[in-house]
Amino acid sequence: MAQATTDRPSLSSQLPDKTLTKWLYDMQLIREFETRTAQAYQQAKIGGFCHIYTGQEACAVGTIACLDAKDPVITAYRDHGHALARGMDPKACMAEMFGKLPGCAKGKGGSMHMFDKPNHLYGGHGIVGAQTPLGAGLAFADRYRWEVLGKGSKQVSLCYLGDGALNQGAFHEAQNLAGLLNLPVIYIVENNGYSMGTSIERGTTMADQLTLKAKGYGIKGIEIDGMSIMDVYDAFKPLVDECRDLQRPGFVDLKTYRYQGHSMSDPQKYRTKEEVEDAKERDSIANLASHLMQERGCLSEDDWKAMQKEIRDIVKESVDFAEAAEAPSVEEELYSDVFIHPLPNLSPSGAYTHGSKNPLL
Amino acid sequence: MAKMNLVQAINSTLAYEMERDPRVVILGEDVGVNGGVFRVTDGLAAKFGNERVQNTPLDESGIMGIAIGLALGGMIAVPEIQFEGFLGPAYDQLVNHAGRMRTRSRGRFTVPMTVRVPVGGGIHAPELHSDSPEAIYSHHPGLKVVMPCTPYDAKGLLLSALRDPDPVVFFEPKRVYRSFLEDVPEEEYLIPIGEAKVVSEGEDITVVTWGAPVFQALEAMDQLPDDVSVELIDLRTCYPIDIDTIAASVEKTGRCVIVHEAPKTAGLGAEISALVQERCFLHLEAPVQRVTGFDTIMPYYKLELEYLPEAPRIKKSIEECLAY
User: Fold this and answer.
1) Domain ranges across chain A
2) Residue A328 pLDDT
3) What is the extent of the structural domain holding B165?
4) Do B61 and B175 belong to one domain?
5) Strands A185-191 and B256-263: what pairing?
């Protein structure tokens, strides 16, 4: 775990109250959003599959808090939290899951495919581990833009993966390339202990020393307690700064826990209720709320209740919005967005054009 | 105007576009100082630097994935896969990411990438180094698939591919790489993706093919009696298929033979045959014929020419179709 090695105050302790209060707000937004998402799924208003982020909120919020606005972010399919933490309008996120047109992918992608161009979120992808070479490529593009084209500034790409993705071949090729070519990408393993129903000990070697896997590719790796957002920030911010400055890759074993099953249809026979309850004892949101109320004294019980109420209203509004929004039309949306121009009149060249404008993005 | 073979035409076109557009980045196994396994990128690293002609390890999934990320990030990625058989490890990235990114993000992100892949048999190589998987990649929505077989067409199609905002699989028939020279204009020209070429006009029968078999078809036509008039179509683009050009020809001739190196079952010949019967049913004088590889694995070189659709088999099929 990350530990202060000197007597200097931690980075997070030097941040203003309003920054930490915003973290609390963002984490609670994800928590409430996922609660309503699970309800809507059970009411069959959300189709397909649905992977809930509850329990892992400090991971997305804490790591994204260390980024610049233009740093690319790419993740796998448990992606609602990253979308919200990156700044996506909850309405666009909820409408996407409801399969409605104002969704971030026009209601045609669903839960696993959150994209947000203005916020530099490059998806939401469904094949375990397959997004990891893309993360290296995004870093390649940014470094190329900076070093060869002489434009922009030094960026760092964040590529999230679950602990199950540690065992996919693509991830090892991606790490090797990132190490070899010095690509500024940080692989964040959101290690919730289970790849679907397989515990990490049963799925990967050296489960208690994952950073050694990165070391094998010449990549600096650190372990962080992902249940404490202060720990996440304190340990992750220096790594981001270092990878940005030196244009090098990084690796994080971000230890966390998901309170829900892998997906909404998971019977969870692989773990006990006691184990889940134990994890909830270390809940990141309760932790931060209590820190702000008791140690910092910048948040009252009433403030916290008011914040929760405000968030409940915002999320409820997003559900109402998603329910009322129109579905994609057959004529406009069934055939579009495969190529820049619909077949058969393909244009071999020409400027990139966006899809039809989404009112929320 | 300079005389060039296919390799030289592709090399000079890559250089032209790299000069014009600093976003173009080549990456692949030994593409740098060695110039690639077929020397197609020879000299480009010396001219443009190692950052723009990026050597990679032997890791096709990684090459394809990193190229997709590079393209997503705003560059023009030009990965080289050494042989068509090596697309296998990269299949997940190519099909599940490159071909779907525009759809998955509903137009917000795209992958401007040209995947260069030597393809086909006829160079005495074993399987995985002689295959013709164009139908596999044509089947997946979101990928365009081209296969020029002349230096002139290669330049025009490669420029179109490099400037396409969507991913293009650019198959290069390795049997033709150094087989002949052709005049290639120095100035820029684009050949639209999705346009077939009528190589020779005829009245009696339509032969549709692409890649190296274009030259076997020409050889077969030379061996036919002078009074047999064959219309030969080089498809040039495997997807999207230019059915308009094919249908116009078959409506004129009433007969159609399709030739490809790939195995017969579920090859592109099956698709074209279905399109022809949909479009030209009342014009057909004979069943559509296919001259293809067999539903076996491409054999090593002693049997290679038995497997490939060589001129005698094409000639026989034309004669049978005419006699029906």
Assistant:
1) 12-328, 330-361
2) 83
3) 2-184
4) yes
5) unpaired
Q: B97, B129, B139, B140: which one is catalytic?
A: B129
Closest CA to A72 of A137, A161, A166: A137
Contact A130 B62 (CB under 8 A): no
| Chain B residues 221-250 with CB within 8 Å of chain A | 240, 244
Question: In the annotation, is B129 catalytic?
Answer: yes
pLDDT of residue B205: 98
**Domain spanning A12-328, CATH architecture:** 3-Layer(aba) Sandwich (3.40)
State the Cα–Cα distance between residues A215 and B215, nearest whole angstrom: 53
Residue B133 has pLDDT above 50, yes or no: yes
Q: Is B253 on the interface with A (CB under 8 A)?
A: no
Which of the 8 DSSP states describes residue B298? P
Report ipTM (2 d.p.).
0.90
| Continuous segment of H or E residues that includes residue A122 | none
> Does residue B29 sit in the same domain as residue B176?
yes
Which of B144, B161, B184 delimits the end of a domain?
B184
Tokens linked to A280: 């909830």
Q: What gap in Å lies between CA A20 and CA A176, rounded to an integer? A: 36
Mutation to test the B interface, candidates A173, A182, A360, A361, most B Cβ within 10 Å: A173
Name the pLDDT band for A108 (thresholds 50, 70, 90).
Answer: confident
Residue A19 distance to chain B (closest CA, Å): 30
What is the Cα Rg of chain B in Å?
19
Domain total of chain B: 2
Q: Is the domain of B209 the same as that of B294?
A: yes
Does A345 have pLDDT greater than 70? no
- Structure-block tokens of residue A182: 């010095």
Nearest to A149 among B22, B103, B104 (CB): B22
Contact call for residues A24 and A85 (beta carbons, < 8 A): no
Query: Does residue B104 belong to the interface with chain A, where contact is any CB pair within 8 Å?
Result: yes
* A281 vs A2 pLDDT, higher one: A281
* A340/B194 Cβ within 8 A: no
Chain A segment 116-175 residues within 8 A of B by beta carbon are 117, 122-127, 130-142, 144-145, 147-149, 169-170, 173-174
* pLDDT value of residue A351: 30
Same domain, yes or no: B168 and B56 = yes
Q: Across the strands, what pairs with B259? A: B209, B291
pLDDT tens digits, A171-192: 999 999 999 999 999 999 999 9
CB burial of B252-269 (b: ≥16 within 10 Å; e: otherwise) equals: bbbbbbbbbbbbeeebbb
Residues in B 15-74 with any Cβ partner in A closer than 8 A: 22-23, 25, 49, 51-52, 54, 56-57, 59, 61-62, 64-74
Contacts of B226 (CB under 8 A, 6+ apart): none
